[in-house]
Amino acid sequence: MVVSEVMLKWAMRLYPPLFLQRIWVVNIDKGFKGVHVKIKKSFLNKNYNNSIFGGTIFSAADPFYPVLFHQLLSRKGYKLKVWSKSSSIHYLKPGSSDLYFKISLTDDEIDNAELILNTTGKYMAHHPIDIYNKDGEICVSVMNEVYLRNLNFTDTSL
After folding, report:
1. What is the domain partition of the chain in residue ranges?
2. CA-CA distances (angstroms) from residue 77 to 7, 8, 17, 146?
3. 32, 58 in Cβ contact below 8 A?
4. Helix, strand, or coil here: 122?
5. pTM for this structure?
6. InterPro entries from the entry (predicted)?
7. Planar angle of CA 145, 148, 152, nearest 5 degrees
8. Using an 8 Å Cβ cutoff, are 82 and 148 in contact?
9. Chain centre distance of CA 9
């Protein structure tokens, strides 16, 4: 479904799996080229060590690259299947305060995805996410592999 940046922001804010874990979409950039996310530390997502539960952090990092690619490329006429194919996560220090991250898609990344979708029909690439605490220290590093399939692609090389 193609929606506006504001509509998607509010849909993601109120989506129960994110909302109940206190994952808050602060802003979605114009043209769906980026998103800024806050993970609010609360009693709903604190672990035994009084830091943010790792599953909450992982849940926050999971959906945004696929969603941005889908919204951006759907506007360009692509019919797509999109998901996070795999992820790796490295917890560098406890999330003892609210956490923040910003991801962005560059014009080169978008152009590369379109080129691959138009020539092979499938795009797979790893995209990094660094998650920071309130002091600007990296607490978590995530590598998210995004999978896109162009449903309109037909292989003409056969």
Report:
1. 5-150
2. 20, 19, 29, 19
3. no
4. strand
5. 0.92
6. DUF4442, HotDog_dom_sf
7. 170
8. yes
9. 12
Cα distances (Å, whole numbers) of residue 20 to 15, 29, 40, 64, 136: 8, 24, 11, 17, 25
81 is written with which tokens?
């299947």
User: pLDDT for 64-102, tens place per residue?
Assistant: 999 999 999 999 999 999 999 999 999 999 999 999 999
Q: Which helix (H) or strand (E) holds 34?
A: strand 34-39
- In CATH terms, the fold of domain 5-150 is Thiol Ester Dehydrase; Chain A (3.10.129)
| 57, two tokens | 């952090």
Instruction: Please write the tens of the pLDDT for every residue from 21-65.
Output: 999 999 999 999 999 999 999 999 999 999 999 999 999 999 999
Q: How far apart are CA 62 and CA 6, in angstroms?
A: 20
95 Cβ partners below 8 Å, 6+ apart?
39, 41, 51, 52, 57, 131, 133, 139, 140
